[in-house]
Specification:
Largest interface: A-B, 20 and 25 residues
Number of helices of chain A: 0
Number of strands of chain A: 9
Radius of gyration of chain B: 13 Å
Order of helices and strands of chain B: EEEEEEEEEE
Structural class of chain B: mainly beta
Helix content of chain B: under 10%
Oligomer: heterodimer
Radius of gyration of chain A: 13 Å
Chain lengths: ~110, ~110
């Protein structure tokens, strides 16, 4: 079973920041938080991951709370092309078997 | 560089037929994964290959499903005696090693009539 809880859907206005929350209250010390997204009819796309520090890359920022029980993915200036299902996944970096366990994700709709 | 590729992109078959789905991972990636995504469902892990180690088949739903990875590169997922409930998008991913980010292919949409 997925170890994360995400809202099923969110809307965001184009050009605004999209803030996608994720709860992972049972995360253990060796587990990272990964974010993937899946645009309609495409395979999932890696976005970002982190352990306990905030992370930023060219796609997004990841804010992890100090207790690591929740995180927020931030798309600073959402565009229509960011409309997708966003998955938050917790997994050990050196996990057994390498498999990712996806939940239902958040369907983000970016509107003009 | 080239990403993960899968073929065919779409496959329609009749119930009871066998199908083979192909995955070409990113060159140099030692880890390869198969997942499937049924309509309205999340992604479900099927099988994982790492180098020359025995594959982790723990996600295969039945013995009608099998997969192989020849020469540590291309992988084929075979479904024998297909059933309607096998209809799904089958996704392949690869990573440089088991600790690295997984990169997904576009998937094969399988429809069993």
């Amino acid at each position: 079973d997925a170890k994360t809880t995400q809202p099923p859907s969110m809307d965001c206005a184009e050009g605004r920041a999209a803030n996608l929350p994720c709860n992972h209250s049972t995360i253990s010390g060796n587990e990272y938080v990964y974010w993937y997204r899946q645009i309609h009819s495409q395979g999932p796309q890696y976005i970002i991951h982190g352990l306990k520090n905030n992370e930023t890359n060219e796609m997004a920022s990841l804010i992890i709370t100090e207790d690591r029980k929740s995180s927020t993915l931030i798309l600073p200036h959402a565009t229509l092309r960011d409309t997708a299902v966003y998955y938050c996944i917790v997994s050990p970096r050196y996990n057994q078997g390498g498999k990712l366990i996806f939940g239902q994700g958040t369907e983000l709709s970016v509107k003009p | 560089g080239a990403g993960v590729s899968q073929s065919p992109s779409n496959k329609v078959t009749e119930k009871g037929k066998d199908v083979e789905l192909r995955c070409d991972p990113i060159s140099g990636h030692t880890a390869l994964y198969w997942y499937r995504q049924s309509l309205g469902q999340g992604l479900e892990f099927l099988i994982y290959f790492q180098g020359n180690s025995a594959p982790d088949k723990s996600g295969l739903p039945s013995d009608r499903f099998s997969a192989e990875r020849t020469g540590g590169s291309v992988s084929t997922l075979t479904i024998q005696r297909t059933q309607q409930e096998d209809s799904a998008v089958y996704l392949c991913a690869s990573s440089l090693d088991p600790t690295d980010t997984q990169y997904f292919g576009p998937g094969t949409r399988l429809t069993v009539l």
